Amino acid sequence: MASPWILQWLLVVLALCQLGSSETALPNRIDVNTRWDLARSPYIATTDVIIPESVTVTVDPGVEIRLAAQRRLQVFGTISAKGTATQRITMTKVSPSADPGYVVPKALRLVHGFTYEVRDGWAQGFYKNRWRNICSRNRDWSKIDCRVACRELGFSDGNFTLLSVAENYTTGIVYTAPACHGNESSIFDCPGARDIEMGWDVCHIQELVGLYCWGANMDKFKDHWWGIEMYNATRQLQSLHTPNTQMNRSRSEFEFVDIMYAGVNTTLHNVAAFSASPYPPFLLNMRFMHNAFDAINLTQIKGPVRIWDSEFANNRGHGFHVQTAVGMVDLRRVRSHDNGGDGGVVRMMDYHWQEIEEEITQSDTVRLCWDDPSTQSPRFPFLIEAKGRVPSTIDVNICQKTVQTDYLGQLLTVSMLEAELDPEAYALIRIYDQMSSNLQVAFWNVSMRNDTKPPKPFIYQGVVSRRQMLRIEMTWVKSTRLTRCTTFEPCVRVILQVSVDNGRKMSELSVSESDFSSNVQRGLTVANPWTYVVVRESTFRANLFDAGLKIVNGSTDVFVNRTNFLGNERSGLNISTASGLRVVNASSFQYQQGFGMDVWHQYENQTRFGTTGYPRQTEVFTSNFSWNSEAAARFYNSCDTHNIVVNNSDFRQNQR
Predict the structure, then answer these.
(1) pLDDT tens digits for 453-505?
(2) What does pLDDT average to over the chain?
(3) Which of 454, 631, 460, 441 lies closest to 530 in space, CA to CA?
(4) CA 531-322-111 angle, 5° bins
(5) What InterPro entries would the database entry show (predicted)?
(6) Could you report the per-residue pLDDT of 17-66, keeping only the tens digit for each?
(7) Are 108-220 and 360-502 the same fold in CATH?
């Protein structure tokens, strides 16, 4: 009879064998519809896993997918990964660990970069309890110095550059020569750190230290997998917020999924953990944590973006980075905190529509000056191409189109997305509300600007109807001696987007019930908006650079309601746009290390202009401004008319 210890040993061996046999190796390519079920979990990928266009992979709740270092899941077809609240799906590295391994750096950062990425920009150091600009009296740091700094930031190497002249927003530091040996873990561990000078004006009117970093620091990210890529994946038509609103989105589904320890590709560079273009899937109840760069990067998006009930935490880059050509970004109950960049970035991009692309809505192309002048109850949103009809012997051409919806109570929003123009031509676009005594709601003079190189046409902020019918009229004028234009043959081409919503203007970005906190840079950056940005019932707390929420460039109306701004660096809310109506209601601005609210009118490098006849206006109602280290609210850089209305608001213990 076998002794008890032998029986115990046999039971342990049997259990280990059963555990090992439960692992399932994934092939490089999935060629048939497949289900990854819980019984065979975890699934191990030692190579890239490709899901072709015609294939659907279904992932059961509770499944764990582990990918080897620098390997990715490429989706050209469809993946349905729908976990549950109690059985989440996990996508992680091959050897998951409770130890995150890499901690987001809190002593050095790069800001104001050219690429909206965390890999380049001004160097700022956390020195004596504050983030401070770094200058070097115009001396270059050595290659070893740059490498130490970039490795501290999670990259492998980098170059030095001198960037913009400093202004004294806060006390700076002079760090002339770090003189690093190369084995330091921080730039502030180098011998030269003993000679750092600090003072209010030590960097004034000096160029600042700038860095451009590249490659992944493999001491910190050696086991990280690549991520999920979805480029030109299978799409489907999706009904949205109204019965007559439909857009394409990815057929794939992600719900209750954790994506962790991704972000390093085969060339050992930092990349996003989840990338998609041009039609992303809806992301519901997601978690993105401990990734080596941005958690999400959505580029050249032409469909709706929906991120609901999701968390972004401890990612090296931004929590999410969305670049959209059509707007329609909806963030609900998002928590983004402790990321190395912004909690999130949403950019309305200047996309060149080479031709009207029917896959946006799968509806007929609408062309002003070419098609029937009436478009009744179409599927929204759709694009209008207002294009000169050449050859033409007429110097002044007028064409128009009526657009309406049959749904009572809906309003039409018209946004200008792009304009192309011959130097010897211009266009005047007028938009009238047909059901309000022909009330003119927009007058856009599309002519060449003289403040850009090369010259660009004026592009204007979008407008909304008063009721459910609009008439769009374009007058385009060319040189008298030409039947067609020489530089740009059609003379004029303007792309308009028409969308609908129930009783209100259609927003390109809506944020609700969300929390952006303790990010190394801003809580949320919104860049180049064109019509309407809405933020409701959200919190921006203790974000460490520039603003809790920054809306920059472009021209837009902004509505902020029941939102809290607490303890952010420099300002709680910063609106730096060319024009628009800003309404702040029932919101709180407390304990900012700077201004509670900062409204700045941008005159240089404008991407978009306010609609003629609509003055800049800021309205603040029933809000609280308390214990901010600068003024409660600042309105500045406005040489034009700016109407300011402040009612029923509380101001106390602000420092100015």
Answers:
(1) 788 898 999 999 999 999 999 999 988 777 888 899 889 999 999 999 999 99
(2) 90
(3) 460
(4) 100
(5) Pectin_lyas_fold, Pectin_lyase_fold/virulence, SJ_maturation_regulator, SRCR, SRCR-like_dom_sf
(6) 444 457 999 999 999 999 999 999 999 999 999 999 999 999 999 999 99
(7) no
Contact assessment for residue 393 and residue 464, using Cβ atoms and an 8 Å cutoff: no
User: Helices marked H in 161-268 — which ranges?
Assistant: 218-221
Contact 561, 537 (CB under 8 A): yes
Six-digit token string for 517:
């906190």
DSSP string, 572-631: EEEEEESS-EEEEES-EEES-EEEEEEEEE--TT-S-BPPTT--EEEEEES-EEES-SS-
Fold of 108-220: Mac-2 Binding Protein (3.10.250)
Report residue 378 as tokens.
Answer: 């179409």
More confidently predicted of 604 and 456: 456
User: Which residues make Cβ contacts (< 8 Å) with residue 157, sequence separation at least 6?
Assistant: 146, 147, 150, 151, 213, 214, 215
Domain 360-502: assigned CATH number:
2.60.120.290
What is the side-by-side strand order in the sheet with 320-324? 49-51, 72-75, 227-231, 274-277, 296-301, 320-324, 344-348, 524-527, 549-552, 569-577, 593-601, 633-636
Question: Per residue in 225-235, pLDDT tens?
Answer: 999 999 999 99
Per-residue pLDDT of 157-195, as tens digits, reads 999 998 877 665 568 999 999 999 999 999 999 999 999
Residue with tokens 């519901």: 284
DSSP conformational letter for 158: E
Structure token pair of residue 215:
């490659």
Please tell me which residue, 311 or 606, carries the higher pLDDT value. 311
Give me the residue spans of the domains in the chain: 26-95+223-348, 108-220, 360-502, 509-652
* Beta carbons of 350 and 323 less than 8 angstroms apart: no
For 221, which DSSP code? H
Assigned token pair, 533: 């940005």
Sequence-distant (6+) residues with CB within 8 A of 462 are 413, 414, 415, 416, 497, 530, 531, 532
